[in-house]
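Exercise 7. Predict the structure of ABC transporter ATP-binding protein from Parablautia intestinalis.
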Amino acid sequence: METFLLTVRNLNAWYNREKMVLTNFSLELARQEVVGLIGLNGTGKTTFLKVISGLLPTFQSDGILFSGKPVNPREKTFKMCRYTVFAEDNSFPYFTFLEYISYVFSAYKKNMPDISALVQGFHFENYTDTLLKDLSTGNRKKAFLITAFALKPVLLFLDEPVNGLDFQSTEYLYRQIAGYKEHGTLLFSSHILESITLTSDRVYVLENGAIKQTFGRGKLSAANIREALRYENNL
Ligand SMILES: Nc1ncnc2c1ncn2[C@@H]1O[C@H](COP(=O)(O)OP(=O)(O)OP(=O)(O)O)[C@@H](O)[C@H]1O
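Solution. The predicted structure, encoded as tokens:
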């Protein structure tokens, strides 16, 4: 039987106990697949990424399994296998991109590869020595995306990676996302249907804090996703 790379069983998560954000949220990610996560605003996509990235401790679940073994998102061994790019990230304001990426590689105990193709692909040549706090929102996001694709963790999470990127970088990003399955597993949230249909093996549709549908290859079309979202919104 296939062991999934990541299994999440019946996850409940909240910011305050009166209002559950995720309820019985379950998903499975295979090794080396690219999966989209879509849902209306406020359905809990970022909240899931916060839980799995160890940033939100207020959750309960029937199990989070990494390679078949139960893990806590805050565990170091699990941390070293994943990296998350959040939609907005103001961390490390006084690091330049080059300082940040070398810090990340040393924290993950990996040697930094040649990153020039990624820097060029994201049109980031002129910003590598600028403090992260002084970059525009889109350029700051590129700093974290380049770090992610250079690091190539077994498990990569991207929260709305397309938002704020210029057109040329978006096309490059789609190629990086689609090609990620050569290295590992990538889950990304997006509101842009094309970003999912052009890159993903599967898509999960999130509704009111739980996974309501999943479409695999063959069924993964903009029309099907739109239909699922329309149903969700009772339109
Ligand atoms: N820090 C917080 N404190 C309290 N409630 C929060 C907090 N962050 C998010 N929420 C609430 O949790 C719910 C889910 O938010 P979340 O950001 O996970 O949704 P999302 O699916 O990522 O939305 P979007 O598509 O708009 O980015 C929303 O109702 C939101 O208001």
